[in-house]
Amino acid sequence: MAAGEKGGARKRPEDLRSHRWFGVDDLRAFGHRSRMLQMGFSEADFRGKPVIGIINTWSELSPCHFHFRTRAEEVKRGVWQAGGFPVELPAHPVTEQYMKPSSMLYRNMLAMETEELARSQPCDGLVLLGGCDKTPPGLVMGALSAGLPFIFVPAGPMNSGGWRGKTLGSGSDAWKYHAELRAGNITPAQWKDMEGGMARSFGTCMTAGTAATMMLAVEAMGLTLPGASSIPAADSAHPRMATESGKRIVDMVWGDETPAKLLSQGSIDNAVAATMAFGGSTNAIIHIIAMARRAGLELDLERFDAISRRVPLIANLRPNGDTYLMADFFFAGGSRAFLNRLSPHLDLSAKTVSGATLGEDIADADVFNEDIIRPLDRPLQAEGGLAVLKGSLAPRGAVIKTSAADPRLLSHTGPAVVFENYADLKKRLDDPDLDVTADSVLVMKSGGPQGGPGMPEWGMMPIPQKLLKQGVRDMVRLSDARMSGTSYGTCVLHVAPESHVGGPLALVQDGDLIRLDVPNRRLDLLVDEAEMARRQAAWVAPTRRYARGWTSMYLDQVTQADEGCDLRFLEAGAATPEPDIY
C-alpha cells in the first residue's frame, strides 16, 4: 500500500522537483518546455507529471545487461500507465567481463554519475537498471546520496549452461575445468568446445556469485519489488516486473517515499543476513558497507561476523553446493520464499519500495524444493557462508568464504610462498622448481584498492600445476585482492591494510609461517615483533603509476576494504544542495 493510500500527505504537481524546470513562467522554463516539444513530446506529456529518470547501464560490452534496451521500454510503459513521464538516461555500465584492470575501479564512478544525473536533471524519481556485480551497489550508492525516491530493477540471472550432458555454471565451472585442463585431464579441444556452453542467454551469472548476491541483498534492503531479484532474465515474468516497477515509482514520487524514509538499521541487517544465508559473495561485504555508509547507517566487519554466526546457510546453490543454479532457485520459490524461510533472522518491520513491510511482502511465499532452499533446522552449513578474520597479518580484517572452502584447511599453519604481484604469480606459479607443497600458503601482494588498482578479482589464485598433477584441488591462499563470487576454495581475501600502503602483508617473506584459524576468527603471521619492526623500517612504498585522470583521483580518495572502498569525498559531508535554475 502506498504512502498516500495510508492517509499521508501527497505531493501536488507544483510540489514536484521537475516543476522548477517545466512549471514556472520564466524564460528558462520556456526554453525547457520548448526543447521537449523539439523532441516531439506535447506539454501534456510532461507538465505536472512526475519525471522518472531511468538510469540504464546497457552496453554492447555488457552481456549481463544486453536486454536492458528492451527492459527500459517496459519500465517506460509502466511509468506512462501510472501517469508519469519517463526519460532514459544512460550511465556507465561497469561491465565485469571486459573492464581492466578491474571493474571495481569504476564502481564509484557509476555511483558519482548516478548521483549527478539525478541531481542535475529534472528527475522526481529514479528507476535503476543493473545487475552485473558492481552496478547494484554503484547505482544504489549514487541514488542514496541523491536522496530521490528510487526503485531497483535487477537484470536477473542468465539461462543455465550445458556441455556434453553436464550442467555448467558460469565462473565456477570455468575455474573447475581450467584446473583439469592444466592437470591434463581434459583436452584443449574440449576446453574450447565448452566456451559456447557456458553462457546461453543475456543476464548475470547463474551461479550464486556476486551478481546474484547483490541483487538479493538490494531486495532484502527493501529496494526492489518483492521477488524481483531471482527472476531469470529471459523469463516472461521479468518484463512484467520491469513494467510494475515503472508503475510503482510514480506513486512513490507522489507519496514522497525517499530512501531516508524507507531505510533503517534493520534494512541493512536484513541485507547482511540474506547474504550470509545465501552463501553469498565475499564482495558483498565491501558493497553493503559502502551502501550503508551512503545511507548514514552503521555497519562494520564485526557486525557481519556476528550476523554470520547466528544465521544458517540455507541456499544450496553453486559454488557452495554442487548441483543447483539460479533458475532452480527461482522455481523452488525464489527470493520471496528464501526470505520467508529466513524470517526469524530478519527485521520484518523494515519498509520496502512496495509500500509495505518486508514481512508483508514475503508472508505468503512457499518453498517448493527443500533441497534447494533448506529448512532452518537442516541447513547446508550451521553458520553463514562468510567469516571475518583478524590478527597480526590483518589488523583491520580479512574475509573468507567458508562455505566454498575445504573444511580441513580452515585450521591450518603452513609456510608462505610469496608473489609480489599478479604478474609475478603468473610468471612463476607453474615453474616445476617452485618450492611449494600442498601445505604451503600462497601469498599474493599488490592486489588491494590501491595496489591493483581497484582490487581486482585475483584472490582465487590457481593451484600450481605440479600440485594439480598430484591431485591437489585446494590449498590456503591469501591476498589483499578480491575474488569472483563464482569462485571457490580456501581463499583469504581483502587483507587490510593492504600491502601497497605498508600493511603487514607487505612484509611477508618466503618461508614465514602463517596460521589460519577460522573457528577463532584469526589470521596471524608467526614472525616475532623485532623482525617485523626491522622489515617495516626497510619497507619502501611503491612508486605511483597513475598521475592523472580518474585513477589518480581514485587513488587519492579510496578507502580500505574494511571501509567499503568508497571515495572519501563521496561517502561523507553535508547533502549537496539543489541546483539553481537561472
Describe the structure.
The chain is an alpha/beta fold and about 575 residues long. Helices cover about 35% and strands about 15% of the residues. The strands form three sheets. It has an eight-stranded mixed sheet. Strands 2-1-3-4 form a four-stranded parallel sheet, with helices on both faces. A two-stranded antiparallel ribbon has the order 5-6. The radius of gyration is 24 Å and the shape is globular. It starts with 18 loop residues before the first helix and ends in an 11-residue tail after the last helix.
Secondary-structure topology with pairs:
Elements: H1 19-22, H2 27-38, H3 43-46, E1 51-56, H4 68-81, E2 85-90, H5 107-120, E3 125-130, H6 135-146, E4 150-154, E5 161-163, E6 166-168, H7 172-183, H8 188-198, H9 210-220, H10 237-254, H11 259-262, H12 265-278, H13 283-294, H14 301-310, H15 326-331, H16 334-341, H17 358-362, E7 386-391, E8 394-401, E9 411-419, H18 422-428, E10 441-444, H19 465-468, E11 477-479, E12 491-496, E13 513-517, E14 522-525, H20 529-538, H21 549-557, H22 568-571
Parallel strand pairs: 1-2, 1-3, 3-4, 9-10, 10-11, 11-12
Antiparallel strand pairs: 5-6, 7-8, 8-12, 9-13, 13-14
